[in-house]
Design goal:
The complex is a heterodimer of chains A (299) and B (403).
Chain A lengths: L1 H6 L2 H31 L6 H18 L4 H25 L9 H23 L4 E2 L9 E4 L3 E4 H23 L1 H11 L1 H6 L4 H23 L4 E2 L3 H16 L4 H21 L6 H13 L10
Antiparallel strand pairs in A: 1-4, 2-3
Chain B lengths: L1 H19 L7 E8 L6 H20 L7 E8 L4 H13 L5 E4 L3 H14 L3 E3 L16 E3 L4 H12 L6 E7 L2 H17 L4 E8 L7 H10 L3 E5 L4 H11 L2 H4 L2 E4 L4 H4 L11 E4 L9 H14 L5 H20 L4 H8 L3 E4 L2 E4 L11 E7 L8 E8 L1 H4 L3 H8 L1
Parallel strand pairs in B: 1-2, 1-3, 3-4, 4-5, 6-7, 6-8, 8-9, 9-10
Antiparallel strand pairs in B: 10-13, 11-12, 13-14
Helix pairs in contact in B: 2-12, 3-4, 5-6, 12-13
Classes of the chains: A mainly alpha (299), B alpha/beta (403).
């Protein structure tokens, strides 16, 4: 360990871990966004709202169980499923008729949907801040690298990140729907012609993407106050990550989230007053040298 | 089919016209409220409106003011100054309101204040925290019904100066309110206790969700005390992160409104103990008959506890009503004359609107968060009441600022 410390100081190591746990949330949400962008070509601005709804649903489920640990685990499963249901209704009722439209039109439409979702959340859950308690197992912190506190819950996030990434890889590469959706993304008419119901495949992909947003919301809920407006901050970051990584490329989203999360946490170390400018500078630098994003875009 | 659709669309539009034109009665006192009713700020603005409504309904039930009923209409400025200003103009020029009330957005309040100065329409500010509103940019027609950042800062500094902490760190939301609160505390603290040192500062973007990376940095610098200048949802976010990283057990910190119900209630018993905070209103303190009556009335009507906004709204309506009563006529200039120096009973004791700067003299409570039996969330304990005369800027200071 002493050898490692001589190369990287404990402060930097702990900051990297903190950055990585932030990356997990960013990755989960933006991979869903990227999936939808890649296959359906919808720049879904309402994705942030689904993340917010996921957090609110996690609150409700946890609240029903009196904030117990059981409530947390059920929320982790129930909230993404709830969001999936909401998105299924939105997709079947609205988006499926609009796949052929222009991107600008879709951008405006999804923006409108995000406003509607925002007001619906206010009607259903009210305007007060909500909070989901951290489950007993993950309360408090562990001391790492010579007495630097690291929240236990963040270690859980660090485990969840790779799990979601692997699951996503399996779905996209090993399942039938993953293969069809990849084919449909390239040539929709051809897939239609071989007798596959593309509309349903698109619907499923949309739901999976939104489920990821809901999962992100449920995972973030114990660390923040669940509040109106949490969608806006996140959707901007998610879009930047997706653009940085290459539109529609899930691994690009992972790379983008890593860059975003790490530049942020390490930036704070270098220049605390202006820590916020680092991730955005990274986006600018990436786009100057790789205007289409780091990895291959499906667009 | 198309024709039916077209017809129904027209029908809906016509219906809509009826809905959007609010009709004021002929012989009434008209009040226009411009405030944010969408997005995160609604956490606070709904209480202002509900408190206002409760007072108005009570006044009207007793026959109104000078034989007239008080009527009000609301406009949602969506937290955007340009929309807020347009709405203020519409209310004054088209709806011919007698006066304006609002808003939680300081930028909107300043824009409206500039406009109503020319129109000579009184404007009661109910949640904007910028001190510019009645300090630098203050004038005859603007009334401040809440504390502003300079006041909050001074109140906190008064108590902190008596504590043994020397090495300070400042951290906060990187927007005007955050900086104004931090400056308010720090500048006053330095005046009261010259030996304090500032080790460093951390500023994060507004709406930052995860404070952990910032906190590990602050802890490494080993300050004695942290002044945390967060607002809105940042209040809860920071407290959760402080609990998760163990910060709250290691280094004491202060947040304006940290002890308020809106910050502590959502966290239940998981909120960190030992956080210093200031607030203008706590429903459980002072435990006086007046406060209990107010809380009971509010709970009966809305089935929740009143928070600070409820007091702002409730008192604003009462000052307006009593002002017109004292003036004896519905006249804007007469109203201003009447409320200047007027003092009324409130849930937190007698409150006055100062003549020199139109500031409401609210007391400030400084306390420490703690778990107390019987409450299923943390409440403030060890409460120090700072009377208005101690922490309000003096009339001379206001005069100097307005030059």
């Amino acid at each position: 360990m002493d050898f490692i410390y001589s190369v990287i100081s404990p402060g930097v190591l702990s900051q990297i871990l903190v950055g990585l746990s932030r990356t997990v949330i960013l990755f989960i949400v933006s991979s869903g966004l990227s999936l939808i962008l890649g296959v359906l070509r919808i720049p879904n601005v309402a994705h942030g709202s689904l993340y917010m709804i996921g957090a609110y649903m996690a609150f409700s489920i946890s609240h029903v169980f009196g904030g117990s640990d059981m409530g947390f685990w059920l929320a982790l499963v129930g909230a993404p499923l709830g969001v999936a249901l909401v998105s299924l209704i939105a997709e079947r009722g609205l988006f499926q008729y609009l796949y052929e439209r222009e991107h600008l039109m879709l951008l405006l439409l999804t923006f409108a949907v995000s406003l509607v979702f925002g007001d619906l959340v206010k009607i259903v859950w009210g305007a007060e801040y909500k909070s989901v308690p951290v489950p007993q197992v993950f309360q408090g912190f562990v001391l790492l690298f010579g007495n630097l506190p690291f929240p236990r819950y963040n270690t859980f996030l660090l485990v969840m990140g790779p799990l979601v990434a692997v699951a996503l890889w399996l779905i996209v590469n090993k399942t039938k729907i993953g293969k069809i959706s990849r084919a449909a993304a390239v040539d929709r008419e051809m897939v239609d012609a071989v007798g596959i119901n593309v509309s349903w495949v698109f619907g499923m992909v949309f739901v999976i993407g939104c489920l990821l947003a809901g999962l992100g919301g449920a995972l973030v809920a114990p660390t923040v106050s669940v509040t109106l407006g949490m969608d806006h901050t996140l959707i901007i970051e998610a879009f930047l990550i997706v653009i940085m990584g290459g539109l529609g490329n899930i691994w690009g989203a992972l790379l983008g989230a890593l860059i975003f999360g790490l530049t942020q946490s390490l930036g704070i170390l270098i220049w605390p007053q202006f820590g916020i400018i680092f991730p955005y500078t990274a986006v600018v630098v990436v786009l100057i040298f790789r205007p289409t994003g780091l990895l291959k875009s499906t667009w | 089919m198309k024709r039916v659709l077209l017809f129904s669309m027209c029908f809906i539009c016509v219906l809509g016209l009826f809905l959007v034109s609010p009709t004021f009665g002929a012989n009434t006192i008209k009040i226009g409220i411009v405030d944010t009713y969408t997005g995160p700020a609604t956490t606070f603005t709904m209480d202002v409106l509900d408190g206002f409504k409760m007072a108005v309904e009570k006044i009207n039930a007793k026959g109104g003011v000078l034989g007239k009923k008080i009527e009000y209409t609301t406009r949602d400025e969506k937290f955007k100054p340009d929309i807020g200003l347009a709405m203020a103009k519409e209310l004054i020029l088209k709806e011919k309101v007698d006066l304006l009330v609002g808003t939680i957005n300081s930028a909107t309040a300043l824009a409206i204040s500039d406009f109503i100065k020319k129109e000579k329409v009184p404007f009661f500010v109910t949640f904007s925290k910028s001190s510019k509103i009645n300090m630098e940019k203050g004038h005859r027609y603007v009334f401040m019904m809440n504390e502003h950042t300079e006041m909050a800062g001074k109140a906190a500094a008064l108590v902190l100066a008596k504590k043994p902490y020397v090495k300070y760190w400042i951290a906060g939301d990187d927007y005007e309110y955050g900086h104004a609160i931090a400056d308010g505390v720090w500048n006053n603290l330095k005046k009261l206790k010259p030996q304090v040192q500032l080790l460093g500062q951390t500023w994060w973007k507004l709406g930052e969700a995860d404070f952990t990376p910032y906190i590990t940095q602050i802890v490494a610098a080993k300050p004695d005390f942290i002044i945390v200048a967060t607002g809105g949802s940042g209040m809860v976010n920071f407290q959760k992160a402080a609990k998760a990283t163990g910060l709250s057990q290691q280094i004491p910190f202060y947040q304006h409104t940290a002890i308020e119900f809106s910050t502590l209630a959502p966290q239940g018993l998981n909120a960190p103990e030992g956080v210093y905070g200031t607030a203008n209103y706590l429903y459980y303190y002072p435990d006086t008959p007046a406060n209990r009556a107010f809380v009971d009335e509010f709970r009966k009507k809305y089935n929740r506890y009143p928070r600070i906004g409820a007091l702002y709204g409730y008192m604003t309506a009462q000052f307006i009503a009593e002002g017109f009563k004292k003036a004896g006529k519905v006249d804007r200039e007469a109203l201003i004359k009447a409320v200047e120096g007027m003092s009324l009973d409130s849930p937190v004791g007698k409150l006055e609107i100062r003549t020199c700067d139109h500031q409401l003299t609210l007391p400030m409570y400084f306390g420490l968060t703690k778990k107390v039996g019987g409450y299923n969330y943390l409440i403030a304990t060890d409460i120090t009441t700072i009377p208005a005369k101690d922490y309000l800027p003096t009339c001379e200071e206001v005069k100097k600022a307005r030059k």
